[in-house]
Amino acid sequence: MKACYSCDKKPIKDSIYKAHTEKIIFNKLPKDNKHYHKVGAPSKVISGLKPDTCFFYFGTNERLFTSPLKKFEDAYGNLKNSGCTRTDSKGNAKIFLNCPQIYIALNGKVYNRHLHFIYWDEKNKMWSKTLFTQPLICHVDKEFVEKHRKKALVIDALPEEMYDKKHIKGAINLPASKRWTENDLKKLIEMKKMTVKNKQIPIIVYCYNKKCNASEKVIHRLNKMGYYNVVDFEDGITSWKGDIESTKEIK
User: Running DSSP on this structure, what letter comes out for residue 36?
Assistant: First the structure.
């Protein structure tokens, strides 16, 4: 999944892409490698990095899920959605990052959600010129779903028989286990009479619970089709306490 227009065509390792730091970004990097984390941001473990190495990570700032897209510079701001830490001996590190917004890149295109990181050059006491990019999926809770579901397209990624038995009210069914096309998706969007006509319609996908990966599979498929304004309700239908629907009784 390519995450930025300046990235290499193929990942170098574990979905990590190598790119070049835009001047506008390099001028906003911290002056040193003092460690810090964004207080209150969700944690995430990333792997496949250089072992025992300091790095700076950042993403775009958060934005209202249903609001219009911003341009590159406005989306990143002063790189406040960031942190600086060190990998362990296996190249793993825990980072704290708010859900990055998707944005309009300098080439006018939109890409899937991602984070960037850049290594500290210990020898020259400065940040490296090479930027790395890694795609990511933002996970949201039931309060987020309740707040945005009436203005977003909610997708149930479970098999049809499970959807028929119980699903979030207003959700459509696009099972991860079934083949469906972009035309199928467009027809469902038209049926829902969504006001957003382009591909950046806000979409919430869910499956059964945190152990279920059907929602992430559907999100990857949506991204390949160019639908990037997508988040994952990872707790799934088992944790949903709001309105539900049942299409038909399952014996």
Answer: B
CA angle 125, 128, 132 (to 5 degrees): 145
Domain residue limits, the chain:
17-135, 139-245
Dihedral sign of CA atoms 221, 67, 115, 104 in order: positive
Is-above-0.85 flag for pTM? yes
Choose which CATH entry (3.10.20.30, 3.30.1330.10, 3.30.559.70, 3.40.250.10) describes domain 139-245. 3.40.250.10
Cα three-residue angle 134-138-139, rounded to 5 degrees: 140
Contacts of residue 42, Cβ cutoff 8 Å, sequence gap at least 6: 96, 97, 98, 99, 139
CA distance 175 to 189: 16
How far from chain centre, in Å, is Cα 204? 11
In sequence order, the β-bridge partners of residue 83 are 57
Q: Looking at residue 20, what is its pLDDT?
A: 55
Q: Letter for the amino acid at 167?
A: H
Work out the pLDDT band at 1, boundaries 50, 70, 90: very low
Rounded-to-integer distance, Cα 175 and Cα 159, Å: 5
Burial class (CB in 10 A: 0-12, 13-18, 19+), 44: middle
